[in-house]
């Protein structure tokens, strides 16, 4: 059963741990198997520090988009325009710097504001004009792509300011990396203790202390391995730090605020949420604005990495973001999904792209395999949901 107001599951005693294990650990196990296979087939190249660093950079833009997409889908909506908005944000940033001579800070602020405004317009059309989000954002996808081509005249705009490029291709030093790693480990341990104490306080079923310790140890171990891999090459890439920062922020919003609980409530049962006195239209509007902001951030990171605003930037990224969210456990029916799951979904897709590229497989195989995995992920979600009823 599910609490419609909070979006949290109320699972009968004895079923909780099985449900969590199936949904959370199956993807992790699949990812580990995938990495081992690619490592064997590429003679260890796949798991080299350089390739892991490149892999995380490659997945950063889609992962950033997925953090906002999760909240959109959880409310029962969809956004097909984020890929085009990524390209438009990068094109506007390039035009302001290369043609108008704007500095990095005002350019970034202007692009972020543009993302919020566009998200707000689409959210307004969805919740106040009652136009389905699918249609609103489909129109936005074509509109933004047309504006981008009009701005760029079909050619790339370059170069970007040196200080702007830092956001796309630079790395932080070792001291900052150590601090961030320690903070991440502390956060994992603190959240595990807090969650356990909260469940105990509310007389809910607890997993064994041994299992909690093992789970936390696994996560901490992965964080340490990730740190070692990054600093065996050049350090933490700034795009990855931005991605992780948004992951922490949106995970906190979704899991630790009233606003986050309202988002899940809307997706779980919108009528019950309305009757409970929650301003549904306001919440959904804010979610669209946040999603527009996230798309603008992704556009900034991508254009900084490319050192240009290109008319082809962002192509198909909306589908990658949706696929990452769904593979990560977000239900297209709304009411269920986690940001961290979407990041894991993006990592799985990026690993497939990267591994098959290292094996010199033709591009069409990447689309076929990713499509099959997306369908299997949805099927798996449906099957586990049916078994838990």
Description:
The protein has helices spanning about 15-40, 50-75, 80-100, 105-125, 135-150, 160-170, 175-200, 210-230, 240-255, 260-270, 270-275, 280-305, 315-325, 340-360, 365-389. It is mainly α and about 400 residues long. It has a domain at about 45-170 and about 235-320. Helix 7 (about 175-200) runs antiparallel to helix 8. The model is unreliable at about 1-20 (pLDDT under 50).
Reconstruct the topology from this structure.
Layout (H helix, E strand, L loop, with lengths): L15 H26 L7 H26 L7 H17 L5 H24 L5 H20 L9 H8 L4 H28 L7 H23 L6 H19 L1 H11 L1 H6 L4 H27 L10 H11 L11 H20 L4 H26 L1
Helix pairs in contact: 1-14, 2-9, 2-12, 2-13, 2-14, 3-4, 3-5, 3-12, 4-5, 4-12, 6-12, 7-8, 9-10, 10-12, 13-14, 13-15, 14-15
Low-confidence stretches: 1-20
The pLDDT mean sits at 86
* Main sheet makeup: none
Give the % helix. Answer: over 70%
Beta content: under 5%
End-to-end C-alpha gap: 8 Å
Compute the gyration radius: what is it?
21 Å
Number of helices: 15
The structure class reads mainly alpha
What is the overall silhouette?
globular
Number of strands: 0
Taken in chain order, the helices and strands follow as: HHHHHHHHHHHHHHH
Defining traits:
mainly alpha; globular
Quick description:
The chain is mainly α and 389 residues long.
């Amino acid at each position: 059963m599910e609490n419609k107001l909070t979006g949290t599951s109320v699972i009968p005693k004895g079923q909780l741990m099985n449900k969590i294990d199936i949904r959370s650990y199956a993807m992790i196990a699949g990812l580990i198997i995938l990495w081992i296979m690619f490592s064997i087939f590429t003679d260890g190249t796949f798991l080299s520090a350089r390739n892991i660093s490149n892999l995380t950079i490659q997945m950063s833009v889609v992962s950033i988009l997925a953090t906002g997409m999760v909240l959109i889908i959880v409310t029962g909506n969809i956004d097909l325009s984020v890929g085009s908005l990524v390209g438009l944000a990068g094109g506007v940033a390039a035009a302001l710097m290369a043609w108008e001579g704007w500095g990095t800070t005002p350019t970034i602020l202007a692009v972020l504001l543009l993302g919020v405004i566009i998200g707000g317009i689409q959210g307004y059309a969805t919740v106040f004009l009652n136009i389905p989000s699918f249609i609103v954002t489909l129109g936005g996808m074509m509109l933004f792509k047309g504006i981008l081509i009009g701005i760029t005249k079909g050619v790339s705009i370059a170069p970007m300011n040196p200080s702007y490029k830092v956001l796309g291709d630079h790395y932080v030093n070792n001291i900052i990396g150590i601090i961030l790693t320690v903070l991440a480990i502390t956060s994992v341990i603190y959240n595990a203790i807090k969650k356990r104490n909260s469940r105990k306080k509310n007389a809910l079923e607890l997993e064994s202390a041994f299992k909690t310790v093992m789970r936390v140890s696994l996560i901490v171990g992965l964080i340490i391995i990730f740190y070692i891999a990054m600093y065996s090459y050049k350090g933490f890439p700034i795009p990855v730090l931005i991605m992780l920062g948004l992951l922490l922020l949106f995970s906190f919003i979704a899991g630790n605020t009233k606003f986050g609980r309202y988002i899940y409530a809307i997706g779980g049962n919108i009528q019950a949420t309305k009757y409970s006195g929650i301003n549904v239209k306001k919440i959904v509007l804010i979610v669209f604005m946040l999603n527009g902001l996230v798309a603008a951030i992704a556009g900034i990171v991508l254009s900084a990495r490319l050192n240009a605003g290109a008319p082809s930037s962002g192509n198909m990224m909306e589908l990658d973001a949706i696929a990452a969210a769904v593979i990560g456990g977000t239900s297209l029916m709304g009411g269920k999904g986690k940001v961290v799951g979407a990041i894991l979904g993006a990592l799985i897709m990026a690993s497939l792209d990267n591994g098959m590229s290292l094996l010199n497989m033709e591009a069409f195989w990447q689309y076929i395999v990713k499509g099959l995995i997306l369908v299997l992920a949805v099927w798996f979600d449906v099957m586990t949901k049916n078994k838990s009823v």
